[in-house]
Amino acid sequence: MTAVIFDLDGTLVDSQRAIAASLRHVLHECGRRGADNEDLRWAFGPPLPDVMRRLLNSSNPAEITRAIGIYRAHHRSVCVTHATVYPGIPDVLGGLAASGCRLFVATSKLRTVAEKVLGHFDLSPYLASVSGSELDGRLGTKTEVIGHVVRMHRLDARDTVMVGDRADDILGARAHDIRSVAVAYGYGDRGELEAARPNMICNRPDQLLDALAGL
């Protein structure tokens, strides 16, 4: 193993408060009500257009585009203040970097926002690059983001592992013949992760080093 690609939300950083706050802001701005107590965990991870279509129960392109803009503007203001790093993650990244692994982030989050979050929590020094969705619509799915990382850095799939908390992370890794570790402490439930068939499931951040070493 010479390279590890990490998801961000639900894997390195617990940002559920930030994501939920921005989703509820979208609902308020779009005149939708009754969602204050709704469990929005389903929306943590998928591409924003898919999330907005389900959140608003709409297929109207103009409405979806407006909702994405509202979400992104609000999320920039809370992405740091409403998030925390999972305990033990700096030690995991430091241990992997010290062993000679190159580390990357591949997220469905807007790349510039991901860079802001990682910089604020002093995780950027461990990383070779951060990739995510772009304002022009490029890299809109997790499979596309992972593929971008692999091509940009000429990674050997045989020596690369993807770590993430949702089925999209596992399926995206498989699309590029990459092994995967699913983390059960994030936003995907156990059934979702098992159905995606990762190479391993890790229950806690402090188990990640051993899980990766065991692949």
Description:
The chain is of the alpha/beta class and 215 residues long. It is 44% helix and 16% strand. The protein contains nine helices and eight strands. The chain has helices spanning 16-29, 48-56, 61-78, 89-98, 111-120, 142-152, 167-175, 190-196, 208-213, and strands spanning 3-6, 13-14, 84-85, 102-110, 129-133, 160-164, 179-183, 200-202. The strands form two sheets. It has a six-stranded parallel beta sheet with strand order 5-4-1-6-7-8, sandwiched between helices. Helix 8 (190-196) links the parallel strand 7 and strand 8 (200-202). Helix 2 crosses helix 3 and helix 7 runs parallel beside helix 8 (190-196). It is globular and about 50 Å long. The model has no long low-confidence stretch (mean pLDDT 94).
Structure summary:
The chain has helices at 16-29, 48-56, 61-78, 89-98, 111-120, 142-152, 167-175, 190-196, 208-213; strands at residues 3-6, 13-14, 84-85, 102-110, 129-133, 160-164, 179-183, 200-202. It has 215 residues and is of the alpha/beta class. Strands 5-4-1-6-7-8 form a six-stranded parallel beta sheet, with helices on both faces.
Helix content: 40-55%
Strand elements, count: 8
Rg value:
17 Å
- Describe the sheet with the most strands: 6 strands, parallel
Task: Label the structural class.
Answer: alpha/beta
- From the spread of the alpha carbons, the general shape counts as globular
Poorly predicted regions: none
Strand ordering within the main sheet:
5-4-1-6-7-8
Average of the residue pLDDT scores:
94
Helix count equals: 9
Report the end-to-end length measured between terminal Cα atoms: 8 Å
Q: Order of helices and strands, N to C?
A: EEHHHEHEHEHEHEHEH
Beta-strand percent range:
15-25%
